[in-house]
Amino acid sequence: MNTRMTYSVGTKSVYRHHVLFVVIDDCRHYRRYVYRPTAPEILPDATNITVHSNEKVILKCTVRNRRTKDVQWRLVRKRWPLTIGTEPWTTDKDISVLYSVINKTDESWDLVIKRAKPRHTNTYECQISSTQSNRRYVYLRVLAQPKDKRPGISLTGTAYLDLHQKVNLTCNATGLFRAPDDIDWFHNGNIIDQKDQQWGGRLKIYKRIQDVPGRMLISELIIEKSTLDDRGMYVCRSSENEASSFPVSILDTGKTTRYNDLYHRDGVPNKTKRYAESNRDGQNRFLNKPMCLFSSGVCAQDIKGREDIKGRVINSVVCNKINAFQKGFK
């Protein structure tokens, strides 16, 4: 007696066959069931794959009911396998097998090529042991040109700066097969010349080519002690006609102007600029009388050489500290 049971796994049906043997001996019946498991099979998947050079490739091979059989990957018409199980049988270090269990009956034995090259173009075969029926073929084509190999450009920096802060912009240009020959800079539509009087020696442009992968040219534009005339739209353009723009705004908060009115660049009080009007005579000549620096009437010549309330000699006048000593000099 031959019986068949059917049950569903995933989207396919799996059949199990049972054979019933009946033995009659001295009016006694003996029954024995013989279990015959379903044969292993390779499930269908993509059979034609095209990738770019240096891309990662995964060739799928899903096996059902493998049991104790080995799964191998090999090149068609090649004697030696690439892999047996998860073990590599090739000297190509870019090739490996990714194994995973999908469910109780299905397993994944995918061939992985870490960085595909044109030499990997071929027909690959996934098979279960050496049975001719359990094989699946995948054709792989690797294009010579990498996918990410295209010209490009980007411009980065700080968009908002206070007056007299440094402007620092970086232009990153990538060529198709090698670095661009040059990068030009523009400000508000006009090409930037470091020798132009507008920049007054404040502007410098630096360029460098990255060693790896050797297709990138980096140009850096630096402007020291920015002025309000430096604001506007900056553009960098590579010799391959790729361009990128970046807006720069210079903010005048007024703090820098008041500081310059009080002090020279070396930090010495700027008496002449602020108090010139009160120390000139009718013929616009400076007077030799002491110049009063503060609204309290305390003058520089009166304070110099005197001692404060703690007995320390005051050798100079500092604007932001005079209020602390006013009571001692009245």
UniProtKB/TrEMBL annotation:
What residue stretches are annotated with the Ig-like domain? 40-139, 151-249
Domain of life, per UniProt, equals Eukaryota
CDD domains in the cross-refs: Ig
Gene3D superfamilies cross-referenced by the UniProt entry: Immunoglobulins
Do you know which PROSITE patterns this protein is assigned to? IG_LIKE
Its Gene Ontology biological processes? synapse organization
Any one GO cellular component localisation term in the record: neuron projection membrane
Name of the protein: Ig-like domain-containing protein
Tell me what organism the protein belongs to.
Mytilus galloprovincialis
